[in-house]
Amino acid sequence: MDPELIDDCVHCGFCLPTCPTYVLWGEEMDSPRGRIHLMKQHVEGTPVTPEMAGHFDACLGCMACVTACPSGVRYDRLIELTRAEVERVHEREPRERAVRELVFGLFPYPRRLRLSRPLTGLTRRLAPFLERAHPSLGAMAALTPVVERRQRLPRLVRARGPRRAVVGMLTGCVQREFFPQVNAATARVLALEGCDVVVPPGQGCCGALSVHSGREEQARRLARRTVRVFERAGVDTVVVNAAGCGSSMKEYGELLGAEPAFRVRDLSEFLAELGPAATRHPLPLVAAYHDACHLAHAQGVRAQPRALLAGIPELELREVPEAAICCGSAGTYNIFQPEAARDLGDRKAEGVASTGAELLVSANPGCTMQIAAAMRRAGAAIRVAHTAEVLDASLRGVPL
Prior knowledge:
The protein has 24 helices and nine strands. It is α/β, with parallel strands linked by helices. It has four domains: 3-89, Fumarate Reductase Iron-sulfur Protein, Chain B, domain 2 (Orthogonal Bundle); 94-143, no CATH class; 156-274, Rossmann fold; 285-396, 3-Layer(aba) Sandwich (Rossmann fold). It is 52% helix and 9% strand. Strands 1-3-2-4-5 form a five-stranded mixed β-sheet. The protein is globular, with a radius of gyration of 20 Å. Helix 23 (365-377) links the parallel strand 8 (359-362) and strand 9. It has helices at 3-7, 20-25, 32-43, 50-57, 64-68, 75-89, 94-104, 110-116, 120-125, 127-133, 135-143, 174-178, 180-192, 208-211, 216-233, 243-249, 252-256, 267-274, 293-296, 303-310, 333-336, 338-354, 365-377, 387-396, and strands at residues 156-157, 165-169, 195-198, 237-240, 263-266, 285-289, 315-319, 359-362, 383-386. The longest helix is centred in the middle third of the chain and has 18 residues, at 216-233. Its cofactor is [4Fe-4S] cluster.
């Protein structure tokens, strides 16, 4: 924990109405300034108690407070440092340790995720029974999507028409195994817009899930591998289609102590910079756009995806109420804090339903799983598609 960063907070309270857990519970210690107060106590000698760790664990790390803060407090950095400290000094109870080891031994490793995929239909049906064994197991089973078929990407997808750029593409872990159609759509969109898309082998998790949970050693190891893969590929831009991954990769310099030899851009951010070249065909749909926290708050990318969607003829875009409040996904939060995540998911589902949209557009796999599950609970199932899938359908002139 950094005392200088802690002292930047003047406890003004602008963060309170933006903090999901404060909105849910109204508890000072479950607000950003309350947690910063606890951080200060620890720096000054107070040990990390189970209660203190509980308040830190309850934070989603959504960074809405960073957007709201008039003093520029680096709460994003503070909570990452704090979680690493909690992991170092706090002894969790055995069942919780076991669940965490299961999650971080599975999700960052695509091959292991792939082996688990045939069981997703069964585990979803068994979710109520697994929840009795441990709430996190039930949440994990209920959230996991059923994947109909795997889609392989070639190592190089050639530009359609004149080449305008050469980019690398992150395939990720959860995105790659549970949403392969999103990666396929991303590669097609980039190619249709005149990009050679390099999809280097040897990719895996970028380290985002680990860094957001205080597992620094694992995060650095995964980040170093990701850097090596793309530096060997010789690309100067890596396009990312998962908000949490893009957020973490943009902070590799801070995590690893040296900037990588490439820049990182979210798909919508890159396409906005590149400018449109291919023709958009009409998509007569009413769609709502969901702001993923690690895209809107952590990366400041809000206007670009809306502009891309607005450029599609006949697509009507509607705003979701309380857009700045997290849906409750937050990486592994909806697994480790299932009750709070469920409340936030239900709140978000209610907001989405109020728009009357027939399609929800999301830019993060965790958000997609979280909101889809909440909509199912509410009996108002809605199709959720990634920005890349919507653009892909429009550019190719096919139904979504």
